[in-house]
Amino acid sequence: MDSDFGKEAIQLDLFSHVRNTYSQAGEEAISNDSLYAVVAEKLGRPELLKIKTPVGSSGEMHNLIKRKIRWFQQTLKQLGVIERVQGERGVWRLAEPVGKDLHKAADGVRLVAFSTDLGVAFWGHCKDIFASVSEPIALCITSPPYPLRNARAYGNPAESEYIDFICSALEPIIKNLIPGASVVLNLSSDIFLSKSPARSLYVERLVLSLHDRLGLFLMDRIPWVNKSKPPGPTYWACVNRVQLTTAYEPIFWFTNDPLKVRSDNRRVLEPHSDRQQRLMAAGGAKRSATYGDGAYKIRPDSFGRVTEGKIARNVLERGHACSDTKAYREYALNHNLPIHGAMFPTSIPEFFIQFLTEPNELVVDCFGGTIKTGLAAERLGRRWMSTELIIQYLRGAAGLFQKFNGFEMHPALRSIG
User: Fold this and answer.
1) Do residues 70 and 5 touch, judged by C-beta distance below 8 A?
2) pLDDT tens digits, 70-103
3) Which of 184, 197, 207, 296 has the fewest beta carbons under 10 Å from its own?
4) What global pTM score does this model have?
5) Same domain, yes or no: 124 and 80
6) Are residues 192 and 296 in the same domain?
């Protein structure tokens, strides 16, 4: 055993045992001695803590299992998963648990979680990562945490902090937008004044701030209509009966230069209706009519020109059900990973990526979640970059990218879950 210790230690999944020990401790701090004992017990080899081996030219005696554990401990420190307890020697704890079994990256952490030939997903704060990016960006599309009064497991800013929160996240991205590039935000209108059925005006304040502070121009408000959305607001619609249940979320489309905006609605044409198909086949309408005091006229050849499709309207009707979400959930459950509580369907970023970018351009998402924006970009041949604070969500998202060319995952992520 002594002579083969190095080989055997490599084969043992020490990193997983070290990380899980801190994870299971929650907010409690763990001394190094306790860590050694727990890990050795997990290995089923407590006697390893008593073995010492000569190291280096001096032949000084060291316990190699403890040394290996400390090495993995430092790896977790560099990843921002754990931090030293101030004033305590050899005592560590989780850096920032944000919910059950969820771990948020500490400030300054910038880890490539996984990548493909077209894109990369980072673990870390978006403002830290995008501050060092100089690549021209064609589109930022993201669904940031909503300012909910009862926070989800991953946490969210309060409404009073929300404008500064969003502007701070977008500022390093906007400096790299190419002229006519776009920013698309999926927000929530279901934020209410305290103890009131009146909706908050935070969205309107945010729109004005994005223009005044960051120089963005509002191109459109696009409702994402989802009639399968759970009924709400529960208290004001289902209990007090003064509100209607919500069936949409607003999506805001901005650009840094409306005169150079790079959108093209021919990239998102929709199939013609059966009626329009018949009109085109017949050479157009066979009647004349005038409506709206002459503002709108139908001539005998109206609607007869053959086109590839109809221009999409500025309303997106999409349910929240999505085959990618189903695949993510199955992968997460199979790997004992917590499931993200707020996922939009891949068809939402897919639409805007087609509408607002061309192949090989860079698409970014500063609140990546399960990296649906990256997934849509990957399939559409766009380069992509996403950031996410919660390491478990990235581990689950990685399962959706394994089939793509050049997929690589950081070895530390393999022990998550």
Assistant:
1) no
2) 877 877 776 566 778 877 888 888 765 555 457 7
3) 296
4) 0.77
5) no
6) no
